[in-house]
Design a protein that fits this description.
By secondary structure, the protein is of the alpha/beta class. It is about 40% helix and about 10% strand. The protein contains 13 helices and 11 strands. It has a 7-stranded parallel β-sheet with strand order 3-2-1-4-5-6-9, with helices on both faces. Strand 4, helix 5 and strand 5 form a beta-alpha-beta unit. The longest helix is centred in the N-terminal third of the chain and has 21 residues. It is globular, with a radius of gyration of 23 Å. The chain starts with a helix and ends in a 27-residue tail after the last helix.
């Protein structure tokens, strides 16, 4: 009888644990102070957009932090993530992504989806529809929290992808089934690195002169630091829509660095890596009016022809101009995060090279053998990258490979 009583009590406890509210799983974390980069919950995290630039870094950070992690990619057979479960699903398919979340027993969704081009059609499909599909799937499977990778520039929305991001943010705010956090990074290091090889070869650093010796200023954040900030939102009640501030503008540790100053930093980084005296860089300032003329000419051609391809070129031109004139700069201490400086990144690129990206690193060469060998497994995935956020320095006429 006593044995039967113990078994019955154990069974009752197990059943209670199975239906325990998911919020209870973070109660132990709340007993101690939150520590950035360290604190975690006992939850299962699913990352969508996992094979993209930031998505890969987020998967690595979730695994490092100790989360049971599922990485959602288009084709699971072509992806490789150490320590994470890989699931193939299309985020544009609500049924498919819902099944993926259910299979992973998802408690928290981290959405790193964002359009590659930033054009209207691409943004609507990815930044809004696919991202909201992931929200609906999270609600269906009973997830507790949803973290959205947005963009700092949505605070001044003039572009299609910004409007799409804001629609997704509004969808999050308009429901009450899951709590949420929105991370708005200033700029990615990758998007400011496209001219390192040009300077290394003796060419000019081109920047847009806004007049009065001014150029656009930002404090970008490294992918590793940004991933850490994103994963912090899983456990940090201060970043939750339930009693906290869910929208987080976040940049790196640097003070504001103008485009012109970026050229100076690259020259310094190259000299330190090569162990040679620093050479004054050739800084080529292009008046912003030249850009305006180019964008205006493309708009004229679009009005004349109505061609979808010309429309895309015009939208890309608008994106390029936006980032040529707008500062992507956080100033409050709570909006600065991480340890890696832009100069450290430039030194890394000057030493090892970087992977070509038609939307951000238009001058970059293919990665060196040393860089490939040093890349983590998640970086070496053969899966076509999911869309990542458009960053500062997006080129005017980039084309997908």
């Amino acid at each position: 009888m006593v044995l039967r009583g113990i078994i019955a009590l154990a069974a009752a406890w197990s059943a209670t644990a199975l239906v325990m509210p998911r919020t209870a799983r973070i109660s132990s974390m709340r007993m101690s102070a939150f520590e950035p980069g360290v604190t975690k919950t006992d939850e299962r995290v699913t990352v969508v957009g996992a094979s993209g630039y930031i998505g890969k870094a987020v998967v690595r950070e979730c695994v490092r932090r100790g989360y049971e992690t599922t990485a959602v990619v288009r084709d699971a057979s072509k992806a490789s993530f150490d320590g994470a479960t890989i699931v193939g699903a299309e985020c544009g398919d609500l049924g498919g992504i819902s099944r993926a979340f259910e299979t992973a027993k998802t408690d928290v969704v981290v959405c790193c989806l964002a359009s590659r081009s930033g054009t209207e059609a691409d943004s609507l499909l990815v930044d809004y529809e696919a991202s909201v599909n992931c929200l609906e799937a999270a609600r269906k499977c009973g997830a507790r929290h949803y973290v959205l990778l947005s963009a700092f520039c949505v605070a001044k929305p003039d572009l299609s992808f910004q409007a799409a991001k804001l629609k997704t943010e509004a969808a999050l705010a308009g429901q009450g089934d899951v709590t949420y956090s929105v991370v708005r990074p200033t700029a990615f290091f990758k998007s400011l690195s496209g001219q390192v090889e040009i300077l290394k070869g003796g060419g000019p650093f081109v920047y847009f002169d806004l007049g009065g010796d001014r150029s656009a200023t930002c404090n970008p954040i490294s992918e590793a630091d940004l991933a850490m900030a994103i994963v912090d939102c899983v456990a940090d009640p201060a970043r939750s829509s339930k009693g906290g501030e869910p929208i987080w503008n976040v940049g790196g540790p640097d003070a504001g660095i103008s485009m012109k100053e970026q050229g100076e930093l690259i020259a310094t980084a190259i000299a330190e890596v090569d162990g040679e005296p620093r050479k004054e860089p050739w800084l080529l300032g292009v008046p912003i009016g030249v850009f305006d003329g180019i964008v205006g000419a493309i708009k004229w051609a679009y009005d004349l022809t109505g061609s979808p391809k010309v429309k895309d070129a015009w939208e890309l031109g608008q994106i390029g101009r936006y980032y040529a004139v707008e500062d992507m700069l956080t100033t409050a201490p709570a909006e600065k995060y991480g340890k890696m400086s832009l100069k450290e990144h430039y030194k890394q690129v000057a030493k090892d090279g970087q992977e070509y990206d038609p939307y951000t690193t238009i001058f970059a060469k293919a990665p060196t053998a040393a860089m490939k060998a040093a890349a983590p497994a998640a970086e070496r995935t053969a899966d076509a990258p999911d869309a990542d956020a458009v960053g500062v320095g997006t080129p005017l006429f980039g084309k997908k490979k």
